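Assemble and predict.
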Amino acid sequence: MGAGTAERRAKTEAEQGHGQGLRERRRQQTRAEITDAALELFAKGSVAATTVDEIAAAAGVSPRTFFRYFASKEDAALPVHQDFNAAIAAGLPSVDPQGELRREVHGLYGLMVQPYLDNASPAAQRMLQVTRLMRKEPSLRAAVVHQSLERTEEVQAALAARFGAVHEDALELRLAIDIASAVVRASFDAWASRLETGEPADLAAIYQQALDFSK
Amino acid sequence: MGAGTAERRAKTEAEQGHGQGLRERRRQQTRAEITDAALELFAKGSVAATTVDEIAAAAGVSPRTFFRYFASKEDAALPVHQDFNAAIAAGLPSVDPQGELRREVHGLYGLMVQPYLDNASPAAQRMLQVTRLMRKEPSLRAAVVHQSLERTEEVQAALAARFGAVHEDALELRLAIDIASAVVRASFDAWASRLETGEPADLAAIYQQALDFSK
DNA sequence: TGCCATTGTGGCAGATACTGTCATATTGAC
DNA sequence: GTCAATATGACAGTATCTGCCACAATGGCA
């Protein structure tokens, strides 16, 4: 295994260039396979009728491993919504502590829709697929709300620190976050709903409408 | 049918006056006992550390019976929030289909806070106890949001029918409901929060502040 | 008052979700 | 090439929740 080993090493380090090492890339791949399996099974049958064991088998991993990637079968179908956490984290530094509360928070949550403005993009197609499924599955909607709730608590803490004494009252901050979150969710829902019925739907326009209405 | 039969009939109907018969009253009593047991155990330990078996034992019923009353241990602590459904149902007829959407929906959801405006009332004390517990227990918060989500779907259907063609667009209706719901939840939370820290707190004033802020 | 349909309850078995732990294999750094 | 870190799988165990059945309590009706 002399030359073979060296070869393997070189390959490994080259791969670190984009994916942080083979290990991490393999992890992302497994994660994606679980998600694909879950979405397919959910679409074929239903969320309730699909077991974790089935998803794990379809993805080629053990049930135990499934739970190392996702906390529940619902979460397996919604990794898209975890990207939201990244979007929020990335946008936090841009929040102006002196700015108007509602405006700043809407600006922050508006980042969530950015990646999906082009209906034809793969990201948008994926999001549409999930949102469509969500419209039929109450348990998925509940899971999204659950994720949203957890995110809310973190965002509130982060924003409270950032706004400091300007908004020491938690009431308005919490409300601003919940409203911004509702605007985003309603926009995605309406977007998927309209495309489902064949209507043309522009996510940017829908989001703007929702935003205006919320004020 | 003799006089005896008539007498029994009358007695039965008299009981229906407050409790709809002994059966229903007994049911309410059992329900309350389960809730009390759950709240006590949750407060003593934590929601996660408390099992359904323990709650059932403390309430003097079998675990099987527990699940005939509540779908989960979290729900057992939150029957208060099911009163919301009754409040909404009662208020639906008063919604003006010609009125402004946001205004009407806020009017409807505002009914939820009505029973708790007097801080000293037993209902308010009970609500405070639950809300305080909720602030420490993420799983209870999640359960409340879950109940809220289910209620939302029903309310949306009812209001869509009531508003008819005036608001054929689901986006604004959904958003109005979600915002009104968030206003109520944030108000209760701030109310409990301020009383917890010893501050004076007027639920009516807080709700008004939240309402103004949301516009 | 007595009969009967309805309804509440408990016990049991079982499916499913999830977690801790250990042994094993793979990866990656030196 | 060796060793530490990490990923996986298998296993056992706990908790949630449901269907089913037998039994008891209730309430309508003759």
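The interface with chain A takes residues 102, 138, 141-142, 145-146, 149-150, 153, 169-172, 174-176, 178-179, 182-183, 185-187, 189-190, 193, 206, 209-210, 213-215 of chain B (CB under 8 Å).
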